Amino acid sequence: MSIETIAKKQRNYFYQGETLSVDFRKKQLMKLKKTLIAHQDDIVEAVHKDFGKSSFETYVTEIQVVYDEINYMLKNLKKLAKPQKVRTPLLHFYSKSKIMHDPLGTVLIISPWNYPLALALTPLAGAIAAGNCAVIKPSEVSSHTSALISKIITENFDEQYLTVYEGEADTTQTLLKQGFDHCFFTGSTEVGKKIMQTASKTLTPVTLELGGKSPCVVTEDADIVKAACRIVWGKFVNAGQTCIAPDFVLVHESVKHRLILLIQEVLRRFYGEQPLENDDYARIITEKHFDRLVGLMDNESILHGGEYSRDTLSIAPTLVDDPDWDSQIMTEEIFGPLLPIIGYDSIVDTVHTLQDRPKPLAFYLFTESEVYKEFVMGSLSFGGGCINDTLIHFANLNMPFGGVGHSGMGNYHGKYSFDTFTHSKSVTEKTTLFDIPLRYPPYSSKVLDWLKKMM
After folding, report:
1. According to the model, what pLDDT value does residue 196 have?
2. 33 pLDDT above the threshold of 80
3. Do 3-210+404-427 and 215-395 show the same overall fold?
4. DSSP letters along 242-285, please?
5. Which tens digit of pLDDT belongs to each residue from 177-232?
């Protein structure tokens, strides 16, 4: 069936009103959860074919996050969907006002390759909970997982309600031209610009979950042992192919050497002496991305790692020492297992340096100082982040997840997913028992004087 036809069918189905029922939405969320449970082994296998990831890492980073989002919606949907009563100004005497949470209609979800299941189905759970119909465009790069997503949705949901369209970049452009009521995109900043440009032609609102170079700052008073462990975990899970992974580390010169030694020790403990042969360590998704990452190491000082295998598309966890700020590795998002480590002397100068760079999706600060926490977190703009850890803010459904500036617009997770896929419709109802004619012509100067006194 053509893209144009399915878009029209979904629009017609939405206007039949079936998706408006909270009971209907809950049933669809339960169906999605049961379907995922039934396909857990298939998901692990598909992700392993795409990335070589371990079953544990796949469950934690792909499957569990979707379950968490679905469970949140099932628990809170009735409250989220309920119209919200608000106060009415005295001037509108004998009126009552409320905010209704309307589904947007038909939405397009364009998901990336790095977490192909989680970043497709987590926003889908929000779209379902909000009462929408949806088309999912998974990434063609993670082909095995994308094919499984298509199978799961196609076999369990009517295409006029939920459907999946696989294909190359031209498929995405064709989808965007259909005039969906919302487009939710996760991916690179460069592709996000193209998405926004095409969407603007049909005035399609967009949520852009992008990336950027997420800094990690380690101060002289930080718990260096825990910092090393948590930085390594956050950076090298999924072989660094994580949009909120620490992109580079800025560490005070007084503890830089010790931090490097500890990170090297943690890397050996996590991945052994031969990380390219470790089953817990993922590989790079394609040759194109592999070649780009290998190229980033050219002319850089390698502190640790640097080994790679073209046969398996694997690159060892690699530490890069003090790269130049103008070098390629410091001017583009790394999105792989390369970690530049740069020393600094002044936290004030470091903050000023970061202020001059594009706003990142994430920021991480390791310190025990309340003064540093207040100063650094209050001085920098970023999507979200952590103090004394990495990545974990993503998993808190009570907080919005999203970027700012170059790293995106809009957010989701939990209540914020529901808000993203709904329109807050304001409604005021006025009594018909009587009418106060003060607002009608001919206007009285006395009434105007009275209004001015009320200001």
Report:
1. 95
2. yes
3. no
4. -TTS--EEEEEHHHHHHHHHHHHHHHHHHH-S-GGG-TTS---S
5. 999 999 999 999 999 999 999 999 999 999 999 999 999 999 999 999 999 999 99
Q: How far is residue 423's CA from residue 300's CA, in Å, rounded to a whole number? A: 50
Alpha-carbon distance of 131 to 15, in angstroms, equals 11
CB atoms within 10 A of CB 328: 16
Q: Distance of alpha carbon 237 from its chain centroid, rounded?
A: 16
* 323 neighbors 300 (Cβ within 8 angstroms): yes
Residues taking part in catalysis: 209, 243
**Superfamily (CATH) of domain 3-210+404-427:** Aldehyde Dehydrogenase; Chain A, domain 1 (3.40.605.10)
Domain residue limits, the chain = 3-210+404-427, 215-395
Geometric angle at alpha carbon 402, from 184 and 270, rounded to 5°: 110
pLDDT at 143 over 90: yes
d(CA 83, CA 254): 56
Tokens of 231: 């930085």
Q: How far apart are CA 255 and CA 257, in angstroms?
A: 6
CB 346 within 8 A of CB 251: no
For the segment(s) 215-395, the CATH number from 3.40.50.1970, 3.40.309.10, 3.60.20.10, 3.40.50.150 is 3.40.309.10
pLDDT (tens digit, 9 = 90+) per residue, 320-376?
999 999 999 999 999 999 999 999 999 999 999 999 999 999 999 999 999 999 999
Q: Which of 443, 447, 419, 445 is nearest to 99 (CA)?
A: 419
For residues 427 and 196, give the distance between their C-alpha atoms in angstroms, rounded to a whole number: 31
Packed helices 370-379 and 347-355: angle between N→C axes, nearest 10 degrees: 20
Q: Compute the distance between CA of residue 111 and CA of residue 137 in angstroms, rounded to an integer.
A: 6
**Does the pLDDT value for residue 446 go beyond 80?**
no
Question: Distance between CA atoms of 146 and 140, rounded to whole angstroms?
Answer: 7
Checking DSSP bridges between strand 133-137 and strand 106-110, what pairing results, if any? parallel
For the chain, what is the mean pLDDT? 95
Number of other residues whose CB lies within 10 A of the CB of residue 163: 21
Name the region of 91 (left: φ>0; alpha: ψ -120 to 50; beta: rest): alpha
**Is residue 447 scored above 80 in pLDDT?**
no
Residues 26-50 have a mean pLDDT of 97
Widest pairwise Cα distance in the chain:
88
The CB density around residue 188, as the number of other CB atoms within 10 Å, is 16
Measured distance CA(421)–CA(207) in Å, rounded? 10
Please count the other Cβ atoms lying within 10 Å of the Cβ belonging to residue 346. Answer: 10
Residue 387 pLDDT greater than 80, yes or no: yes
pTM: 0.95
